[in-house]
Every structure is written in structure tokens, then in C-alpha cells.
Amino acid sequence: MNHANFIAGEWVESTDAARNVNPSDTADVVGEYCRADVSRVKTAISAAKAAFPAWSRSPPQLRADMLDKIGNEILARRAELGDLLAREEGKTLAEATGEAARAGYIFKYFAAAVVSNEGQVLRSVRPDVDVEVTREPVGVIGILTPWNFPIAIPSWKIAPALAFGNCVVFKPADLVPGSSWALAEIISRSGIPPGVFNLVMGRGTVVGNAIVNDPGIPAVTFTGSVATGRGVLEAAARRGAKVQLEMGGKNPLVVLADADLTAAVRVALDGAFFSTGQRCTASSRLIVASAIHDRFVDELATAMRQQVIDDARKPGTTIGPVVDPKQLRQDLDYIDIARSDGARLVVGGEEVSRDKVGFYLSPALLTETRNEQRINQEEVFGPVASVIRVDNYDEALAVANASPFGLCAGICTTSLKYARHFQRNADAGMVMVNLPTAGVDYHVPFGGRKESSYGPKEQGRSAAEFFTQSKTAYIRSE
Ligand code: UN1
Predict the structure, then answer these.
(1) What phi, psi does 48 have (nearest 5°)?
(2) In a 10 Å sphere around its CB, with 0-12 CB exposed, 13-18 middle and 19+ buried, how is residue 354 labelled?
(3) pLDDT of residue 1
(4) How confident is the model at residue 478 (pLDDT cuts 50, 70, 90)?
């Protein structure tokens, strides 16, 4: 059966469909997912526009109940949704089930946010005049999401959009559409009025472009690559639409000489290689003090050799496959680039074969790298980490900040002084102390600086900045 698009409250099939292939076993086709054409996207946008006036004024309790119901169903089905996610994307069952649960909690968080949409009351500078600042929905939100978190990222954009009274036209990644389709199916049964939520699957060049360029979409939120994000920004800016972008990262993890070595190795292993390193928050630059460098590299390499790289859904697997052949090629190319720039490949970086044919790559650790090299300036998006040796904390901080990206920065240290200094001076949207740079909570602001992000942050209270527009009202009582 083809998985249809959801437009104006109807499931709409099309003949063109994307084949969703399991990266752990290329003989396993997860399903066929219909690709929308431009006219279908336009129908979805018109339906969303038509639904907006009533939805934006709908009783808040109704929206809260709906979001809560969606969250509850996701949580109740987390094992099944996690299995689908692991099968289509390649993260392990534990990681995928965790992501599904995260999606459920996001919906429940924004269910509560419906009724805590706060404003401001101020005194005017004039007598007998009050000022009230309230927040109103924006309209139809265009939502474009990547393949690496196919249920959590859609949830942290769709849930606040609906909570604040907006309508949605949602395009998931063409490569990994199954979890997003399952999410859309749950939303479709929540009692949501026709047109309020629309799913249009397909390619960025067709569906994505149609959304980003349509005058009926006053706001676009996108997570994905820097190159695509720039295109989204230009197109949206041309017609004055609001934009929120989450793009790449090249996140530094500083390991100081006073760090707890075992803990630092665990943090680096998780941050750099879990989820196969396919996270914009991955700890891909390991900046290590020379006094601890050799011991750290030895212990991390040992821990990496103990990882079980296999079918994402097989019990015992700790690192699943790379998502597709294109990403695998990119990972291998970057390892070659680093080596030709003088890096030493200490462990991993090899394609490995398993019972089933999949895109298996052993996690790679490169040492003797310098921060200016391409391996440290460009995002790989795979299980590849490079080590930069530094003499002291000051050099570590300078290297951490010398990056076009600024998503997340981490430090492993037992020194309160350095931890606090790093927290204040790291040029990143998020800082982690003795924790991996990846793996974030669902109820606090998420986002970066420099080339990593653009526009208001996502999640938590910041979500209101993008998904609402403020109104300042002056009231004279006599
Ligand atoms: C996480 O680290 O838990 O695309 C979330 C990404 C991020 C999400 C990371 N937007 O990898």
C-alpha cells in the first residue's frame, strides 16, 4: 500500500512514490511514500488558509486536549514507533524508542503551553492609559524537517505551531518519511479540523520550494543543511516571510587535564558516535589538553573497538548503520581528506559487512589534526571525530570558538572555575558541562549561533517567538 499525503482532511494518493529502504538491510523496503506535486502543495496551502480563521479562534482547551491526546498515543505506541524509526533511519532501537518518547512529551508540553500563553501588562507613559502586549498566531506555517530525527524534530515544530493556533503544511525528508507519516496519521485522528494540518511528502526541490515560495505561507521553519537553509532564507526573505533555521554544527568538546578520564571518554563516545554521529549536535571536534591527550585517545579508541556496529534493531547493537550510500560516501571522503591533510586514523573508518547488506561504517577517530583543516571546519554528519591537541584551557577555548558554527559546545573538567568560564565565553547557543554536546531536553530553548542557526530558538518558552506574533494594545479607560 502506498502511504498517501494528508491534504484538506483527506488522504490523497499519487503515483510517484519514494521507496523507503532500511539502511540496516537494503533488501527490506519499509514502504512506498507518495510524493506530492506542486498543485497538491497549493491545495494544501489553500486548505490551511481557509481553516485558519476558525482554528486560530478555537477554544484553547480544545487545542490542549487534542495535543495531549496526540502525545498520549505517541507515548503508548513508543515501542512500535521506535521500531519503525530504527528500521527506516538506522539509529538503534533504544535511541529510536527514546526519540519517539521525546516526541510524545513534546506534544504534552505544548498541550500545557496552550493555556500558559502569557502576555505583558505595562503602564503607559501617559496618564490613564494601559498597555497590553498579547501574542497571536501567525497563519499557515511551512515546516521542513530532516531525516535524522524523523519524529522528534517534526513534533517540536508541529506541536507549538498548532498550540498557538496556527495551521500547518508539513514536508518531512524524502529519504526517511515513515515516522513522519505515522505521526501525521496520529494527528489526523485527533479530531483536528480539515485543513489545519497537512502532510505533503516529496523532494525539497519540488515540495520544499513550493512551500518556501508561496505567498500563503507567512512563516517557514527548517532544520537541515547549511546550503539548503541558505536557499530557504533567501527565498523567504525575498517575500518578507518569517524564517527559523537550524542547520549544521561542528561542536567542540573540550577535555581538560583535570577531567575525570573515564567520564570524559564516555561523554565523547556518546556525543561523537551514538546515533551514528548523524546529529547536528554531535561532538565532532575533540579538543584535548596535551597532559591527558594520549591516555584519552587510547581509552576512547578502546571503547570504540568495543562498540557493536550492526542492524539497528538487533539486540546488543550500539551503533547502527549510516543512513544511505550518499552519506556513507561523504563520511569516507572526509576521512580521506583528513588523512591527506596529515591526520592519523587511529581506529575505525572502515566499511564493515554484516549478515544483511547495509551501510555499515566503524566509528572513526582521527588524531594529529589542526583546527583550520577541513575536517574541523566542515560538518561530516557521520561517525567521524577528530582530535585537536592543545596546551592549556585558554588555547582550548580559542580553538572551540574558531568555527563558522556555534550550535553547542561542551567541556569535561572537574574545575568549577574553567567550567563557569567556558559557560560564559563559549560562542555557542548551548553549552554542556561534563555532558555530551548531543542529547537535549524537550522543554528548554534549542538553537545555536553563527552559521548554525537563524531566527528565534526552538522549544520551550522560546517557541512562542517564532510561532506567534505580538500585538501591542493601548487602552484608555476614560
Ligand atoms: C539532540 O541532540 O538530541 O538535527 C537533538 C539535529 C538537531 C537535533 C539534535 N536539530 O541533529
Answers:
(1) -65, -40
(2) middle
(3) 64
(4) confident
Annotated catalytic sites, by residue? 246, 280
Report CA(428)–ligand 1 centroid distance (Å): 15
Q: Which of 144, 281, 284, 443 to mutate to test the pocket of ligand 1 (most atoms within 8 A of CB)?
A: 281
CATH T-level topology, domain 2-247+452-476: Aldehyde Dehydrogenase; Chain A, domain 1 (3.40.605)
Fold of 252-433: Aldehyde Dehydrogenase; Chain A, domain 2 (3.40.309)
CB 149 less than 6 A from any atom of ligand 1 = yes
Reported as a single tens digit per residue, the pLDDT across 59-95 is 999 999 999 999 999 999 999 999 999 999 999 999 9
In sequence order, the β-bridge partners of residue 289 are: 390
Average pLDDT over residues 142-152: 98
> Quick check: CB of 440 below 6 Å from ligand 1?
yes
Whether 438 is in the pocket of ligand 1, judged by its Cβ within 6 Å, is yes
Convert the pLDDT of each residue in 356-378 to its tens digit: 999 999 999 999 999 999 999 99
Q: Is the CB of 279 under 6 A from ligand 1?
A: yes
Residue 365's DSSP bridge partners are: 347, 385
From ligand 1's centre to the CA of 131, what distance in Å? 39
